[in-house]
Amino acid sequence: MSLSFLSIEELHTGLKARTFTCRELITDCLECIKEKDGEIHAFLSVYPEQALKLADAVDKKIQASEKIGLLEGIPFSVKDVILVEDMRATGGSKMLEPFIAPYDATVIKRLKEVGAIVIGKTNCDAYGFGSSTENSDFGVTKNPHDLSKVAGGSSGGSAASVAAGMCVFSLGEDTGGSIRQPSAFCGIYGLKVSYGRVSRYGSIAYASSFDSIGPMARSTRDVAIVLSVIAGKDSMDHTSIPGLVPDYIAELKATELKSKRIGIPKEYFSGLDATMTKIINNALDTFKKEGYEIVEISLPHTKYAIAAYYLLVTSEASSNLARLDGVRFGYQAPDPTSIEDLYKRSRSHGFGPEVKRRVMLGSFALSSGYIDAYYKRAQKVRTLIREDFRKAFETVDLIITPTSPFPAFTIGEKVNDPMTMYLADVFTVGFSLAGLPTINVPCGTMEHLPVGMQITAPYLDETSVLQAASVFEQAHHK
Amino acid sequence: MVERCPVKADVAGSNPAARAKLKSNCMLIDKDLVKKVADLSKVTLEDSEVEHFAKEMAEVLSYADQLSEVDVTDAAPTDQVTGLLSVFREDLAIDYPADKRAKLLNTVPKFENGYVVVPKVI
Questions:
Q1: Considering only CA atoms, which of A116, A198, A189, A201 is closest in space to residue A158?
Q2: B80 vs A contacts (CB less than 8 Å)
Q3: Chain A residue whose CA is closest to B75
Q4: Residue A1 CB neighbour total at 10 angstroms
Q5: What is the pTM (predicted TM-score) of this model?
Q6: Is residue B95 part of a domain?
Q7: Given CB atoms, is B94 within the 8 Å cutoff of chain A?
């Protein structure tokens, strides 16, 4: 087995004990990429030289018996919407094909400071617009569990890179399910943090009142370790939450659990596939055995979540993508006759069909004559959806639902029908509208494909989410 | 302009009857409206694309129309969920080294003598 399948703590111990070197660890990842990524296509760019150079520096420290940190020398991948200095950042879009990031996103800066090593940038639907990476302008990412299936999206490359052992963890970005759904499809843990918990500075904005960056990894513990580094106030992102960040690693060790009452929203289970229902029920049985109480709850506005979500995110996206004008960065159309011509031809060439679709839907929802009926009404419905959760959390500590109504679907199955693709996000967008912390936890398989559940807690309570995920993980693997 | 096409949301997204109804009952969005929205979005569309997008936008907006059945009388709009207001930071110039500045400007497609080059605007 490749070294990159070990946990962060096992790797740290191994590096310190000189059981293997950091160069060997990075080399294992690079070889895994070489061997598997021709087919899977998780990466859009890989940086072997830079990674090996950093690995040698870590090895030198170890040889000199210097202390190394827990994440020092640990290789990770980064969704291509997040900037890493001197590396490409296409965001999955042809428009940004020539773009080299001139600075580090705050999350990258923080991970570099503790010595983690970026190995490459991962594929995604252009700007995060999609649920399967089929909207990437650079080809689809295939599911490591079955190459005929999608890896999910939009952070599909990140999920596949972690599941296939090409790196130890990844940073994804989640607007309406883009960390959780690919994590479910690829059988890994993916945390969408509370909106504002992690700085978004240096991330290519999709929908600014939704976007969040979070860790994707093969265990709850690895997720917690990465979160503890990237969480917290950043003066470069005014939406980041001030105040102390809990010690997530220590909280995982706590024997006295903070939250023990789980709500099951009935709206998420009506019409759900029988096998999927059984898998989730088995997971709930595990929680019962661990002393959790399960109660049925109702989130009455659930059925409006997709409609409200897509009106709001396309509106926000249409504003955010205005900056992609062919003037300041990215692709520029040749020989423009006027500034208008420059904008239009650059954007028409650089934007794929889904990007055009979303920008146009957003422009429509914000346009004079329609803004009240679409954008503003959706903002109000968002309030009602948040109220549903607020009321639910008066009686329960956690909410559990499936992450997706189905496991990974076949490549090409939904891509030509945008509405069907949008409906695939039905279980994830509600939590995004409310900005809540929620994690995908693998909890079974349908045929040979992974199935995940979503564990959600009140705003800013990542601790309860991680504790519950960890309890299940340990009980499930007993 | 938009044909109302109320279809109840099907949470699991798997009700074929509702989906079929959604598709068959929806009129197209006006082509002129698509062209107007494309213009607002600063993209140009081929004629075939106009037709295609009209159909797709009609389907999505018809689905979105179900929000009209929600009573939002007492609901204030949500702009953001943090509850943070008037966030300030020290108004300090941050030292930006010359090499970093050069990297930033390097991302501009056309740059001459310290200026970003665009076609004549006025």
A1: A189
A2: 195, 209, 239
A3: A380
A4: 7
A5: 0.94
A6: no
A7: no
